[in-house]
Design brief:
Resolvase_HTH_dom; single chain; Homeodomain-like_sf; 10 helices; DNA strand exchange activity; HTH_TetR; Arc Repressor Mutant, subunit A; DNA-binding; elongated
Length: 208
């Protein structure tokens, strides 16, 4: 596709913003219902020309990145004045999981694309523009754990951020699909895990 015809990745205004918002809201609605969605199907269901849809989303990765960013935006913008790190993380997990559960279909669709691209990459080469890049929540996780960073060494800080990343990642689908856990139990279990890990990290730091 001619790069000159692609709508640049930026905050849109006017008609472009209304078109983009309409496409994203349509996509999120369809994906959250558990359906799969291509860019062509999105254009048809949005009653927008396929050429226009492809200018906003040249690849499936572009579409899914926009959907995930829209779905997780409240999580990435979450803020709290809570001073206790453990309580702050518990509050965050409660908020984040509510949002993730709300958009579970979109998150699962993004995971499917990531797995498909992993399989494809083993036999062919994906260009950087085709790859779906994950890791939207890194910055907010670093900010959550920032008060502990000076009290722990690099290894313990890394273990904490990796653990929190796992908790906020795909484990929600594992717990639902394999163990049939309900949403509230998944939230409380996640809080229990991170509290235990923080306690262990502090203990390890005191023994150094």
């Amino acid at each position: 596709m001619d790069k000159q015809n692609i709508v640049p990745k930026q905050k849109y205004t006017g008609v472009k913003k209304r078109t983009f918002d309409h496409l994203i809201h349509t996509a999120v609605t369809i994906l959250d219902e558990g359906n799969e969605l291509t860019i062509t199907e999105l254009a048809d269901k949005s009653k927008i020309s396929r050429a226009t849809a492809y200018r906003y989303f040249p690849t499936q990765s572009d579409l899914m990145s926009a959907v995930v960013n829209h779905s997780l935006e409240p999580i990435l913008n979450w803020q709290s004045d809570e001073q206790d790190v453990g309580q702050k993380i518990n509050d965050f997990l409660s908020f984040a999981f509510t949002q993730m559960i709300k958009h579970e279909g979109s998150i699962r669709a993004a995971m499917r694309l990531s797995l498909q691209q992993w399989a494809t990459a083993r036999s062919t080469t994906l260009s950087d523009s085709e790859k779906f890049v994950r890791g939207n929540h890194k910055e907010v996780l670093y900010n959550l754990l920032q008060p502990l960073q000076s009290k722990l060494n690099d290894d313990l800080n890394n273990k904490l951020i990796y653990t929190l990343s796992i908790i906020c990642g795909s484990q929600i689908t594992v717990l639902k699909d394999i163990w049939n856990l309900d949403d509230s139990y998944i939230v409380s279990l996640s809080q229990w895990i991170i509290n235990a890990v923080i306690k262990q990290a502090k203990q390890d730091a005191s023994e150094l």
